[in-house]
Design brief:
Elements (H helix, E strand, L loop, with lengths): L4 H39 L30 H20 L2 H22 L8 H18 L2 H14 L15 H17 L4
Helix pairs in contact: 1-2, 2-4, 3-4, 3-6, 4-5, 4-6
Length: 195
């Protein structure tokens, strides 16, 4: 069966639409879970905060996988929600399977960086937000496709000032999570690039 160019274009648009919808559902669901967790944490007087990353505590290493989904109050969560939704959606829309692997790399690299270098219990989706930023910019550099370059330029134009978050400053903000999340995102874009 042969396809006309119009039919091929229509099929391609449908595929992109399904991918965008899947990405929206995935990121929306993760965000909803983070809000439910914070509501539970609020009602239990911060009980979930213990699932943050405790530096250099070997027994706490598994918490590198929970910490990015926990927050230190609703103010913290509100500050992270919009960039998480936007950068997460764009990253997921470039491919769900790659997004999931990239997120795992970001969580591991970011979490280990915090575990080794931080001096306090650390939690929050900033690790993932900085990781998605690094992943999207890295894709533009390593993939060298026009769409990925355009996305990287747009992401830097809108969120470029967040790079200052990797500089030590406010003791209540984990520059380690920001820095190593960013590094994890760039590494993910390198490992997941087209051969």
């Amino acid at each position: 069966m042969s396809y006309t160019p119009d039919r091929q274009r229509s099929d391609e648009l449908a595929k992109h639409g399904v991918r965008a919808l899947s990405s929206l559902i995935l990121i929306g669901s993760i965000t909803a879970v983070m809000w439910v967790l914070e509501a539970f944490d609020y009602t239990t007087d911060g009980w979930l905060d213990r699932f943050g990353i405790q530096p250099r505590d070997v027994d706490d290493l598994p918490d590198i996988f929970t910490a990015p989904f926990m927050h230190a109050g609703f103010g913290h969560l509100m500050a992270n929600t919009l960039p998480f939704l936007i950068l997460g959606f764009i990253a997921a829309a470039r491919g769900i399977a790659k997004f999931l692997v990239a997120s795992l790399i970001i969580i591991v690299v970011g979490g280990l960086g915090v575990w080794f270098l931080s001096s306090a219990n650390t939690l929050g989706s900033s690790i993932l937000i900085f990781g998605f930023f690094g992943y999207l910019v890295g894709r533009g550099i390593f993939e060298r496709r026009l769409l990925d370059i355009g996305i990287a330029v747009a992401v830097v134009a809108v969120y470029g000032t967040m790079i200052f978050g990797v500089i030590p400053g406010d003791p209540g903000i984990s520059w380690q999570g920001h820095l190593f999340g960013l590094i994890g995102g760039v590494l993910a874009s390198w490992f997941l690039r087209r051969s």
